[in-house]
Every structure is written in C-alpha cells, then in structure tokens.
Specification:
- With about 425 residues, the protein is of the alpha/beta class.
- The protein contains 14 helices and 13 strands.
- A six-stranded mixed sheet has the order 1-11-10-9-12-13, with helices on both faces. Strands 4-3-2-5-8 form a five-stranded mixed sheet, sandwiched between helices.
- α3 packs across α4 and α8 packs across α9.
- It is globular and about 70 Å long.
Length: about 425
C-alpha cells in the first residue's frame, strides 16, 4: 500500500520512535530540570505533599480555571467522599477578548462572592504553567489555550484575589488560597479516591493539551533548598523538546509558539487533528490518493481530532468531513492507515511519557502495590484506539523492559476534588 511506503519514508510510524532513546532523553530532561540546569521541562516544585489526611466535614471554596471555562463550587468531604454543591460554570476570563489584570481578578472575585462566610479556605486549580511559591500561591509564567491576559503574568494569584475581595469589604483575615496545577489536582484526587494499596500516584492529562505530575524525593530537587521528604512535581511534560521527523518540524512551524510544546503537538487533542490533515495533504502531494481525494483535501483548512477518531471508528460515516475518502476503496484504506499510524505513535509517546514518570518515582516494583495513574482528558478516552495503544506500549516498555507495574484509573471531577484537597490540606 502507498500509505505504508509514505509513512516509512518519512519516519511517521510508531516503530520509527525508539522507546529507549526517547525514554533516556525524557529522563535526562527531567533530571536536568530538577537540578536547575538547562532543560525543556520546567519540573515545577509545588511544595505540596501527597499524603495529607483530609479533614472531615469542613467546606472549601474551589475555583477551576481551565481551557475556555471557569468553574466554582463548594466542596465538603464526608467520610472521605467529596460532596460538590453550588456548582457554576462561566467563560474563562481572557478566552474571548484580552482582559486587564484588574478585570481578570474582578471576574474571579465575582464568581466566589456567594461563598464568602462559608469557608476561609480556597483551593484554586489553575491549568496553566505557574511557579508555585512556598506559601502555595501561584505566579503565572504563560497562558496557553489562547487565553489573553498578559498583565496577569508574573502576579501572585492568591494575593491579588484576596486583595480584590478585601476591596469589596470582605474580611479576608486568615483566608488562604492554595494554587495547584490541574495535573497536580488529578494526582491528589487519585490519592483520595483510590481504595486499593498503591505505592505512589501519578496525575496525567491528555485532552486539549497534556501534562504529567508525580511524587519526587526532595533530595533530588537540587535547584531549591528543601528539608527531607517528598512533594509533587509538575513536569510540564507537553514542553519536552522532542524532534522526530522533518514533517513534524514542518508542522511545528504552522503552529502558535512554533518552538514550544513539542510533545504536546505530537499527542494532544488540540493538534492531532491538524497534524493528521497536514500529513494527509503531504501524502496527497506524493501521489498516495486519487486526484478527487487530493482536490477535496486541498479545500480543507481545518480538521478536529474527534473527526480523526470518528473516521477510524466508522470510515463510512458521511457526516464526517473526511467521508470523501470512502468513495474509493484505496483512498479509504490509505487514509485509515495514515491516521491510525498517527494515533498509534501518539499512544507510544504517551506510554514513554508515563514510563518516565514511573521510573522517576522510584516505585512500581511490587505488583501488590502498583503505581496508580489517574488519567484524565477526552483525547485519551475518546480518540479511537489511543487508550488501547497506550496500554499496549506500557506493557511493552514499562512492564516487559523495566519490570514496573502500574494501574490506570479514571476519577470523575478530578480537578475539583484535587483542588479541594489542596485548599483543605496545604
């Protein structure tokens, strides 16, 4: 088949990814990031432990800023079970138009005013790169996902929020704000909800973007002076500067921040669809498809990841924007081969990512106490074949090569539950 020849020629198959080479690079970048050396991985210290007991019966205000939505609610744990109440979802400030710092924090305050007097503790899940301070405040380093709030970069989120609430006449004396990344919150949720015996926990998100968090020994975090113990590290794994093929590099140049988020642009939901379209057009230029299919591809300007998964699930679905491939048997098969290969490669890279985190944790040797990975994100669960490929390559790389045992779990409302735990315990 022409598709196989095209994929092999351009190094786009999963088998073209050396698991040993990429894993070594991943682990090396993680180590350098922990030591404060030059690295594409920020390895952000969170000053947050994973083993705190959750107080029963105490309420906490939860804020969840992620993607295009900003969510607020009140959370109370009863017998270890999170009860979520008064949940409200609005648009994320800066998603539709640029906002000033004052507007940004004013919108945050607007959405938690109804909770004033109900709790002195706030857990803030902030799904963007941020430096976490020793007192658990967060300082945004950059906004991804097209959020436009440049004046907020470099400001302390908790401090500015409390200042805004105070200016409205609320008594903020004794109020605390604990800021955590969504991946860190996902890890904390696993610690709270998993009922088995785990050796450690990993938080992993593969949705619009991707990231990983794991528990690291303080003695290995050499870029800051710490007492003995351990804490959760926000890897910012989507930033791994991983160069694979010339087509990958050509595609990178078409994206925003074209020199950043290398791994994210190879595996996440915001990019799998656009990358698949880019590759299909390249294949058409090299004669893989019929003239009719090539013309249809030339007219396409966008492709969503859900449509790639939809084609792999049912190539004959004529509501899919790629349905024109189904008009010709060879076109249909070649398109299927290319897109399935892209998904498989994403699955292998994801498995390598998770393997690197497990190895860094130092756990997973005892099958009675696996490393529990709380995986969150629609791309991971809803992209056809992706979850299957991740598990296949974890078996091949993590278990058969490294002898480590993991268990993937899915916990509902992980960012909310994790932020609540941070607010109550940190």
């Amino acid at each position: 088949m022409k598709a196989y020849e095209f994929l092999k020629r351009h190094g786009l198959r999963a088998e073209d990814v050396s698991s040993d080479k990429v894993l070594d690079f991943f682990s090396s970048e993680m180590k350098d990031g922990l030591e404060g050396k030059e690295s594409s991985l920020a390895m952000i210290a969170t000053y947050t432990e994973a083993g705190n007991d959750i107080p029963d019966g105490e309420s906490v205000i939860v804020m969840d800023a992620g993607g295009t939505n900003f969510r607020t609610c009140l959370v109370t744990f009863n017998n270890g079970v999170a009860e979520i109440s008064d949940f409200v979802k609005v648009g994320m400030p800066g998603a539709k138009k640029e906002v000033s710092s004052k507007e940004f924090f004013s919108i945050l305050a607007d959405n938690i005013e109804r909770f004033m007097g109900k709790s002195k503790k706030i857990g803030f899940c902030f799904s963007y790169a941020a430096e976490i301070t020793p007192d658990h405040d967060g300082i945004p380093l950059m906004f991804s996902k097209e959020i436009k709030a440049p004046e907020v970069i470099g400001k302390r989120l908790g401090k500015e929020l409390l200042k805004e609430l105070s200016s409205r006449g609320y008594d903020t004396e004794g109020m605390t704000v604990s800021v955590v990344n969504d991946t860190v919150a996902t890890l904390l949720a696993a610690k709270a909800a998993y009922k088995g015996d785990a050796s450690t926990y990993i938080g992993f998100i593969l949705g619009t973007g991707t990231n990983t968090a794991y528990v690291e020994r303080n003695s290995n975090i050499k870029k800051i002076d710490l007492a003995e113990g351990s804490q959760i590290i926000n890897v910012e794994s989507g930033c791994l500067k991983l160069e694979l093929s010339e087509i990958d590099e050509e595609f990178m140049k078409t994206t925003k921040d074209s020199t950043s988020y290398h791994l994210e642009k190879k595996i996440s939901g915001a990019y799998l669809g656009p990358f698949a379209l880019f590759v299909l057009k390249k294949a058409a230029e090299e004669g893989v498809f019929s003239t009719a299919a090539k013309e249809k591809l030339s007219e396409m300007t966008d492709l969503e990841t859900k449509d790639v998964g939809g084609y792999l699930r049912e190539a004959g679905d004529f509501s899919n924007p790629l349905s024109f491939f189904a008009l010709d048997k060879e076109d249909a098969k070649n398109a299927y081969i290319i897109m399935r290969s892209i998904v498989e490669r994403s699955g292998k890279l994801t498995a390598i990512n998770l393997t690197a985190a497990v190895l860094a944790s130092g756990e997973g040797d005892d099958p009675r106490r696996p490393v529990v990975i709380n995986a969150d994100g629609t791309t991971f669960y809803k992209t056809c074949f992706l979850e299957d490929y991740v598990k296949q390559y974890l078996d091949e790389i993590l278990w058969k090569k490294e002898g480590k045992v993991c268990q993937i779990v899915s916990i509902d409302n992980s960012p909310t539950i994790g932020a609540a735990i941070a607010g109550l315990c940190v």
